[in-house]
Amino acid sequence: MKSLTFAGIQRYTVFSPNHVGNDASIFSAVGHYLQEHGHTIKMYTEQEFLSKPMPEQFVFTMMRSKAAVRNLQLLEQRGVFSINSAFGIENCTREKMTHLLIDNGISHPDSLILNTQDRISELDFPDGFEPCWAKRADFHAIHREDVTFVRTINELRDVIAEYALRGIERVVINKHLKGDLIKFYGVAGTDFFYWFYPQEGSHSKFGLEAINGTPVGIPFNVDQLRNLCDAASKVLNVHVYGGDCIVSPEGDIRIIDFNDWPSFAPCRKEAAIAIGKTILSEVKLV
Question: Which residues, other chains included, contact 282 with Cβ-Cβ below 8 Å and sequence gap of 6+?
């Protein structure tokens, strides 16, 4: 392959709550991999990407801001190549992700999507939605309150009112699932897949993993988990991904969150190689 010039568009630190260093490290490691294989990297912050012309035709990015994602979508429509695609990044925002996973048969908690300005009554909730999780629908979790565990509908009303005051117009309600919480990382088109119990590795953004308690090691099929994640990555159009799932006491697996390009902190070295490989592999197809 001839030498290429890649634009590496970094993630603005506000979108890396409690993981600024980890996010920067995996992104830098991928850039080094591409350089070691003979390619040139021009690094941009999200702010620079929005304010300066970008002549490069090949992009790898962890961007999250709505403005930067929209700008990259326009460039992709004109032929720019990107991993992850800006369209996939947008698909991982909460409401879009929920619709896409459920509509495509990807195992996911029962969910409701509501307007925060509407009056919420008991009639809006089927049986089994106490307790549940309230999550801002328009974006990823930036603040601890953007994902909140609530035990009753009265608590939920308070959370939704707080969202409305912050200008958040929609909320996703996920039914709470009992079982072991598992975090996973993957890179489409490679053999790389990694899973672990986040509580055992003290890997947390906001400490919400404690809600499901200490994992008991419920047996589950790892191949089934990987196949489920691969299917979700195709539906959401993200090559570099991570997320969380719950393994029920019966061994059933449901994805509760799916993210574009996470930190890969426990497996950074292996992940950087896999990400670099899939970028170069996909470039050959352009």
Answer: 81, 83, 189, 239
Cα–Cα distance, 166 to 156 (Å, whole number):
15
Residue-level pLDDT at 141: 66
The Cα–Cα gap between 259 and 111 comes to 18
pLDDT at 10 (0 to 100) = 96
Average pLDDT, the chain: 91
pLDDT of residue 43: 97
For residue 123, pLDDT beyond 70: no
- Sort residue 246 into left (φ over 0), alpha (ψ -120 to 50) or beta: beta
Flag the least confident range among 158-172, 216-230, 237-251: 158-172
Q: Is-contact 224 78, C-beta < 8 A?
A: no
List the 253-260 sheet strands across, edge first: 193-196, 180-187, 240-247, 253-260
pLDDT of residue 206: 47
Tell me, rounded to whole angstroms, the distance of Cα 48 from its chain centroid.
23
**Domains, the chain, ordered by start:** 5-88+268-283 (3.40.50), 110-175 (3.30.1490), 180-263 (3.30.470.20)
Instruction: Name the residue type at position 45.
Output: T
Amino acid at site 22: N
CA-based nearest residue to 6, from 50, 16, 33:
33
202 falls in which pLDDT band (50, 70, 90)?
low
Residue 16: pLDDT over 60? yes
